[in-house]
Design goal:
It contains 9 helices and 15 strands. By secondary structure, it is of the alpha/beta class. It has a 7-stranded parallel β-sheet with strand order 3-15-14-9-8-7-6. The chain has a 4-stranded antiparallel β-sheet with strand order 4-5-13-10, with no helix packed on it. Bound molecules: succinic acid. Succinic acid binds next to loops.
Length: 313
């Protein structure tokens, strides 16, 4: 019998798989479906202080094996999601879930976090430092001094469990630099990676870009898995052990989940393929991961978490 549960900080999750923020988690109906599924937790759509329409459509296009999106954080505003998680927490006090926050300014993030700090919410906040789709707002996760400034101000008052969602890094020096910043703070987790920003997808028949806003958007799907794995592994080798890693990117099947965990992920989020399949994906992935573990004689994810071998081992 394989055990797919996982632990982050002192919280146990019945399953190591969950949705990624942004996909099918924007309203109560979506979130209730996640609650009813085998997913070990849910994360809410990244919230801004007020309702936000997001970018003009078309802003998402499916591709073979993935998608491009430039959603621009359409969401119902923080109060909507905070109200949902508080009601859920009252109904299911033994469960931990994630509230995603993505202010487009530091002031917005601090104001939202003050509201969460003042509430009874005792789950995890996922502070999104990596949305690539807000015109005029660079991805904060690429500005290491700014990340330090934000976390300094956040942890000056916020003392509940909090993690950050990071963009993908492509240079080992950047892994070193971001890890050096993150290791200076009492983070509960990092989530790596958000979509690969500013890809360009073209409709060759129309000879036109596939989505609005110049055609640029975040890329998700099978083709970003090597980048995601490199980031999960790169951070796992550099972060202090108290900071857990949530692995996200390119998860289509149980092997992908297995590989994220081998690289050091304690939990694995599914975005693009969850968008295609809906909550039934969690049953399929659980079955596939269990089969891999059973074939290898692994009983729990701790049996292989972070134990990726190299040719030097
Ligand atoms: C979006 O709403 O643009 C996607 C959210 C994200 O990539 O963080």
């Amino acid at each position: 019998m394989t055990d797919l549960s996982t632990t982050i900080a002192d919280r146990t999750f019945s399953n190591c798989m969950m949705n990624a923020a942004g996909v099918r988690c924007a309203d109560e109906n979506d979130l209730n479906q996640l609650i009813a599924s085998p997913a070990g937790a849910y994360v809410t759509k990244s919230a801004t202080p007020n309702v936000r329409e997001g970018n003009p459509e078309p802003r998402m296009k499916s591709l073979p094996g993935g998608c491009i999106n430039s959603m621009g954080l359409p969401n119902h505003g923080l109060d909507y999601y905070l109200d949902f998680v508080l009601k859920d927490q009252a109904a299911r006090p033994d469960k931990t879930n994630l509230l995603s926050i993505a202010g487009t300014t530091l002031e917005d993030n601090l104001a939202m976090l003050h509201k969460v700090a003042d509430s009874d919410f005792n789950g995890f906040v996922e502070l999104n430092l990596s949305c690539p789709n807000v015109p005029g707002k660079p991805q904060v996760g690429y500005d290491f001094d700014r990340v330090r400034e934000i976390l300094t101000q956040v942890f000056a008052f916020y003392d509940k469990p909090l993690g950050v969602k990071l963009p993908p890094y492509f240079d080992l020096v950047h892994f070193d630099q971001i890890a050096a910043v993150l290791n200076d703070f009492p983070l509960t987790f990092v989530n790596s990676i958000n979509s690969v920003g500013n890809g360009l997808v073209i409709d060759p028949n129309a000879e036109r870009v596939a989505i609005k806003l110049g055609g640029l958007g975040g890329i998700g799907g099978t083709f970003i898995k090597p980048t995601a794995l490199a980031n999960v592994r790169g951070l796992s080798l550099r972060l202090k052990p108290e900071i857990a890693i949530i692995g996200t990117g390119g998860v289509m099947n149980g092997t992908d989940v297995f590989e994220h965990i081998l690289c050091g992920a304690s939990m694995v989020q599914v975005g693009t393929q969850f968008g295609f399949e809906g909550t039934r994906i969690f049953k399929r992935l659980s079955k596939e991961l269990s089969a891999i573990m059973a074939a290898k004689g692994y009983q729990s994810i701790d049996d292989f978490k972070g134990k990726l071998k190299t040719f030097d081992d």
